[in-house]
Structure formats: structure tokens, C-alpha cells
Amino acid sequence: MSAASADRLARLLNLVPYLLARPGIAVAEAAADLGVTERQLREDLELLWVCGLPGYGPGDLIDMAFDGDTVTITYDAGMDRPLRLTPDEALALTVALRMLAETPGVAQRDAIERALAKIEHAAGDVPGPQVAVRLPGNEDRLDTIRGAVQRGRALGITYYARTRDETTERVVDPMRVLMVEGRGYLEAWCRRAGAVRLFRVDRIDAFAELDEPAAPPPQARPKDLGAGVFRPSPELPLITLRVGRHARWITEYYPVEAVRPGSGDEWIVELRVTDLSWGRRFVLGVGPGVTVLGPPELVASVREQAAEALAAYAAPNG
Amino acid sequence: MSRIRTERLVNLVICLLATRRFLTAAQIAATVPGYEHDPDDPKDHEAFQRKFERDKAELRDLGVPLETGTASVFDAEPGYRIAPRAYALPEISLAPDEAAAVGIAARLWQHAGLAAAASSGLAKLRASGIDLDTQATLGVEPVVTVDPAFAPLTAAARDRRAVTFEYRRPEGDAPDRRRLQPWGVVCWRGRWYVVGHDLAREAARCFRLSRIVGPVKATGPAGAYEPPPGVDLISHVATWSGPVERTGRATVLVRPGRAAGLRRWAAECVPTPEGDRLVLPYSDAEGVAAGIVGYGADARVLEPPEVRDAVIQLLKEAVARHEAADPAVMT
Q1: Which residues contact A4 (CB under 8 A, 6 or more apart)?
Q2: Residues B11 and B63 occupy one common structural domain
Q3: pTM above threshold 0.90
Q4: CA distance linking residue A234 with residue A11, whole number of Å
Q5: CB < 8 Å from B in window 92-151 of A
Q6: Are the Cβ atoms of A82 and B296 closer than 8 angstroms?
Q7: Are residues A92 and A153 in the same domain?
Q8: Which chain B residues have a beta carbon less than 8 Å from that of A266?
Q9: What's the pLDDT tens digit per position in B143-188?
Q10: Residue B49: left if φ>0, alpha if ψ -120 to 50, beta else—which one?
Q11: Which domain does A36 fall in, by range?
């Protein structure tokens, strides 16, 4: 049995109680609510109309009354409740609710907790804790940013861009506040860049609400974050590093393009960087476990910067 | 699935929900449309049995609690029914703010399988009479993602079944094979972990889901163990005891207009003729040195010696490592 037909059976079992709870609902409204086309919904209703209790006579079959564009179930044949939640459905809802409840700066936390308790109760006896969630707490700044975003104003922000190591002033039109992998982000239309940008909340050093409404242009679309926040584009410079065993952790913290074995226990790691000067700071900071193999200008800049710094320490007043 | 089969399955559910007696396959065949066959014709009968088996499996996959039993002690043949209490979603009512929270939660999933499960769960809540506002927002939205090992590990924890998987730490070369009785899965500061009893180490262990390589295999029977009563899963993962105290003070001379990253971190910044003098609070010398060294000649540590020496050491090593590029690898 195909997934699509299993979906249809699930939908049909759900449809009678759904309509029963909403007598006289417009077919178009129900279809939109259930995420199917109006035509599909009418086909589902036609199928249900010939189903019913054994005997299958006029008084046994599911019956419904159409009045103009609306429908009312007049006989449910015992299908008056939806099927209970499957373990996966309960898990998907409760985990997302826990995430929401744990997210700093979220409004109406008590409503989320109440909803979670009710869903868990409705899901039935699932033994013991299976999933627990704890995100970094006490994010006061996230809370103040959220407040500003909800008031719907454009913001002037002082933002530290780590890849370029510069602090800049920008005017942004906020779109939403997000929590990704335990970190808070402001997603906004950046008027300076003329594009949608994600600003890490802990790098927004200051902000002010402006006297104008937030007005992201129509082309401002929320980013798809399914694959993480930083998805390096292929036009960014590729750097190649030789990585010792104790520096291998970098492959878990930065999106790497390729990892292959080098000599001994070394790995050859490729990653894309938005800026070579970030690459230089990164390599110097990670320390002895990492050596740049390419591009040659990065090798040279690491060597020259380090040598110049050493010379300053060696100078009489260093 | 054909319309005919869907119709047969809907009728089968209605019939089994309505009966209080267990109905045998033969009784079902004589009642529910779509199972008509000649029981005396072996081929026809076998075809019916296959069809009925497929239908039962189908309903169980959907989560329909099909009960098996016999109608009386005189019956040898098993019968079937569905207890309405086991079938039905219990009565649930959500206040508008609770319904809004559920609606938001369901759209946070960035994982296709769980996003589908969340929306079919929502459909059932709607069918229970709850109106869900899908436009609501709570200001901050977590993006909910999980690693591929999440689904098999939560299922195993639920069923109390042991699992095996290959686990690779970055420091290691080959993955290790681990055997675990999972107690549960934890999201700690944005990363997922599984906590349980490691059968080889004979001790509680936690594993990062992103380090699991390949499939997670459930082994052995369900209900094979019980997690310790009242286990606090988070406590097995949480190693963070609070913000570190930065009692050390490093003084760094920074070129004007440079090293913005250090300036943000500085407790004070005093312009001098040689450059801006920053005071950086720190907890350990190695850590602060790693943060300073990246700025190369733009930042020079004045004191204390432990930080200054650590930076000089890192710089010397960097020069040595990058002095002669390895031509073999450059190609």
C-alpha cells in the first residue's frame, strides 16, 4: 500500500469526527483547513457516503446533508472520535512544544506548558521520559530584541560581524526572531546589504527602535534553515588545512566541504570561508594542530602576520 | 490503493468498532463488503486470507488498536474487534492560547518525517473539535532539527529495546561499535544526545547523535530493561556548571581602528600614543591567548607574562609550521 493511500485512509477516518464537530462548515473552508483541494474533499465525502455499519441499509450508512456549499454529518456510524495519536505524532508535537517552552524570550510560556501537559495526557501512557530539552537560558538580550520586533519598528543596530572583524551600524527591518542550535538570531532585511540577513543576537552590541515601521520589501523571504545557519556558497574561497588529531574537533563545529586522511593521523580538511582574514585569525587561534596548505596567499598571510607580531615582541619596547 | 480497498478498510474499522463480540475472519468475510469469496474453494479462500492479513497490517500501521481474542471458550478460532476506548483520542480541549502554541510547535520541524507526523497529529486534534490558528506567533521561534538517529533511538527508548550503532569521535580513527539500552534522548544547548546504559562499559553513558555513523539497529526483545526510576536525563549530559569567572586581567595594546573583536571583549579601552590599551578579563591564559593571537601584529600583549608567553609561543609555532609549504600537498 502506497504512502499516499495510507494517508487517504488516515484522512477518511479523521474526516467524520472533524465534520461532526463543525456542523454546517463550508466545504471550501474544511478543505483549506485539512490541506486538501475542494475536489479531493468531495471525493472523500462520496466514498464515506457508501460506508457504514453492517446491514449497509439507508439507516446504517454514514449520512450527510449538503446545503449550498456547506456540509453537515447527520449520521456518523460510530465514527465520532478521531484515532488516537501515534507515538510519532505525539513525539513530534511534544518535542516541538518542549523546544518552544525552553526557548528564551518566548511569550506565553505557561500556555505552552499547559498545552504540553494536555497533549501528553491525550497521547496516553507513554512510559517515562524519552526526550528532554534544555537550551541556554537567561538570554535577556533575546527577550529585549523580541520585544522590539513585536512592536513592529525598524531597528538601528550596532552589529559585530565576526568574519570581517568589524562593528558596523545598520538599519534593519525585522522579520522574525529564531533559536537555531541553541543560539538566538534576528532575521531581518538589512538595508545596507539589500538582502535578508541573520544576525546573531549575542553580536548585536546595541540597538535602537526607530520612528518608522519595519517594512521588509516583498522580495524578503525567510531563509530555509533546515541545513543549518551557515551554508557556504560555492563562490566563497576554499581553504585547505592539515589538521592534527587534537584539532579534529573543528570538523564538528564548522561546516566542512571535505575531510580525507593525510599522512599519519592527520586529516586534510577543506572548508569555505567568507573572508581569508577570518581564515587567518581562525588558524592562528586554533594553534599547533592546524597548518594551512592553501591557498598560497593564506599560507603567506599567516606566516607574515605571525612573523611581524613576533618582531614587535622582540623589539626593545615589546 | 484503490478506492475499493479504501472503502473496504473504512467499513472494516466501522464494523470492528461497533462489535462488542470478537468477530472471526469468516464472520467478517460474511459481513464486510469486499471480502466476498467461496470458503470451499482453497484458492479463493487463500486469496481472502492474504487480503485480510494485508488489511490488518495496514490498520495496525496506522495505529488502529486491533484486539485479538475469542468470543467464547468454545471458539477455537481467533476473532477481532476494536475497543472504542483504545481507538479514540481522549477528549481534549485546548484554550485558544494553548491551541496557538500547538499550532506553532507543529510547524517548527525542519525534519520531513517528523514534520509529517506533527501535521497528521494536528489533523487529529482538529478532528477532536479544536480550532488551531496557524498564523499565530510567540515572538521567538526555535528551529527544530534532529539527527537521523533521533527516530530509531526514541522508538527504542519507548519500547525499552537495546540498540547497537557505530560511534565515531573526532579524535578516534575508526568508529566503535556500541551497545546501549537507551533511556531517552536529550537536547542540550542545541545538540542532541542519547543517554542510557552502555552494555559493554556496564555504566551510564551519553552519546552525541551527530557522531553516530550509519543505522541504529534495535536488538533483542522489547521491554528488556527499565531506566533507573526518576532518572534525570539532562543531568547526564549537562556538564556546564555556570558562567566561568573571569578574574584574570590581560593588558593588550591594539592598533587604532583594528581588532574589533577584542574591543568588544574589553572591560576598558584607553587611547595612548602607541595605540589603544585594552584590559581583557579572562579565566585561563591559553584561552585568552588563542583569542588574541589571531590578530597578529594588530594586538600585542603587555601583561601578564603568562598570557604574553602563551601568545609568543603560538606565534613561533605558526611561523615554523608555515615557513616551508609542503609542495607535495600543494598540487
Answers
A1: none
A2: yes
A3: no
A4: 43
A5: 92-93, 95-100, 102-108, 111-112, 114-115, 118-119, 121-122, 124, 126-136, 142, 146-147, 149-150
A6: no
A7: no
A8: none
A9: 888 889 999 999 999 999 999 999 998 888 889 999 999 999 999 8
A10: alpha
A11: 3-75
